[in-house]
């Protein structure tokens, strides 16, 4: 059996901590999850967690970078499916995303990091990345050349901004849905998507 190098052990430990933290953050939220509880559940000391991630917020940001890419990737896959109405598929994705714990984690972390310039900058970079990921999803719906790049970016940014606002509303009002927004964009989606 080959012995792992120090770097390989650190990478393995980092991945273990990320997976355990993801489960804890999604299950319990950011506020209720401590680094000590993550370390204990992962089978490590708190020092190992701190050596891999400088703070609880840094750990949560790392979890959210992956989660965001996965969630928006799942949206892209969902809208790319051949069967059914695209807006119904978006509605289904939104319901699943909202119930996953992702939104609560995003909101709690945002509130905790907004007054720290370094962490706020990291949040801004993630938001910019989410818009670019949404641009890719919007482009996947469009026939080639049907909309200029700036309009695609505006539409993607508006969708991300609406999703953030809806997430905030749903955190206190579980009856809030994306239906009104989807009704608003329905004519646009019908106009720009190829008809089967």
Overview of the molecule:
It is a single chain. The chain has 196 residues and is mainly alpha-helical. The protein is built from nine helices and no strands. It has helices at 6-28, 35-42, 46-52, 56-80, 86-99, 102-113, 117-141, 149-172, 179-192. Helix 2 (35-42) packs across helix 3 (46-52). The chain is elongated and about 55 Å long. The mean pLDDT is 88.
Tell me the helix content.
Answer: over 70%
Strand segment count: 0
Q: Which word captures the global form?
A: elongated
Which structural class best describes the helix and strand composition? mainly alpha
Q: What's the helix-strand series? A: HHHHHHHHH
Low-confidence stretches: none
Distance between the first and last residues' Cα: 56 Å
Instruction: Tell me the fraction of residues in β-strands, as a range.
Output: under 5%
User: What is the makeup of the main sheet?
Assistant: none
Summarize this entry quickly:
The protein has 196 residues and is mainly α. 78% of the residues lie in helices and 0% in strands. The longest helix has 25 residues, at 56-80.
Task: List its salient traits.
mainly alpha, 196 residues
What does the secondary structure layout of this molecule look like, with pairings?
Layout: H1 6-28, H2 35-42, H3 46-52, H4 56-80, H5 86-99, H6 102-113, H7 117-141, H8 149-172, H9 179-192
Helix pairs in contact: 1-2, 1-4, 2-3, 4-5, 4-6, 4-7, 7-8
């Amino acid at each position: 059996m080959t012995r792992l190098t120090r770097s390989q052990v650190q990478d393995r430990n980092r991945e273990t901590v990320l997976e355990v933290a993801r489960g804890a953050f999604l299950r319990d939220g950011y506020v209720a999850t401590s680094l000590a509880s993550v370390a204990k559940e992962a089978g490590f000391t708190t020092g190992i967690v701190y050596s891999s991630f400088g703070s609880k917020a840094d750990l949560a940001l790392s979890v959210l970078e992956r989660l965001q890419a996965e969630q928006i990737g799942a949206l892209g896959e969902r809208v790319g499916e051949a069967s059914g109405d695209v807006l119904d598929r978006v509605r289904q994705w939104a319901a699943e995303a909202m119930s996953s714990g992702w939104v609560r984690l995003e909101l709690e972390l945002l509130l905790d990091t907004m007054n720290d310039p370094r962490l706020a900058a990291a949040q801004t970079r993630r938001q910019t990345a989410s818009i670019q990921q949404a641009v890719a999803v919007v482009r996947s719906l469009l026939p080639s050349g049907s909309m200029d790049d700036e309009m695609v970016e505006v539409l993607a940014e508006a969708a991300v901004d609406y999703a953030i606002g809806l997430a905030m509303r749903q955190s206190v009002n579980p009856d809030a849905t994306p239906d009104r927004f989807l009704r608003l964009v329905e004519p646009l989606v019908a106009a720009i998507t190829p008809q089967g």
